[in-house]
From TrEMBL:
Organism superkingdom: Bacteria
Family, per entry: Belongs to the FrmR/RcnR family.
Pfam family, one: Trns_repr_metal
GO-annotated molecular function: DNA binding; metal ion binding
Protein name, entry field: Nickel resistance protein
Species annotation: Novosphingobium hassiacum
GO biological process, alphabetically ordered: negative regulation of DNA-templated transcription
Length: 88
């Protein structure tokens, strides 16, 4: 699967883009530093989640290229790797 077809990944990146646009306007408007820092953290969190999703998607895609379609059991084991990817 192309990453461009992954709606969840695109949605997460668009969410981060929206937060970042908000931060820019907050800085331009001279808004409070605490509020701005909270929005910055939202961007970091959105990007971290997008990164984890991208890594998991990439692993699954290339794994299937090598070994073929994955069984239910293999997908369950792969989901554990997906959980691990969120700590990267």
């Amino acid at each position: 699967m192309s990453h461009a077809c992954n709606r969840e990944l695109l949605n997460r990146l668009k969410r981060a883009q929206g937060h970042l646009a908000k931060i820019l306007s907050m800085i331009e408007d001279g808004r409070d530093g605490l509020e701005t820092a909270q929005q910055l953290q939202a961007v970091v969190n959105a990007l971290d989640k997008a990164k984890s999703l991208l890594v998991a998607d990439h692993i699954e895609h290339h794994l299937e290229e090598v070994v073929g379609p994955l069984s239910v059991e293999a997908r369950e084991q792969l989901s554990r790797l997906t959980e691990l990817a969120k700590y990267l």
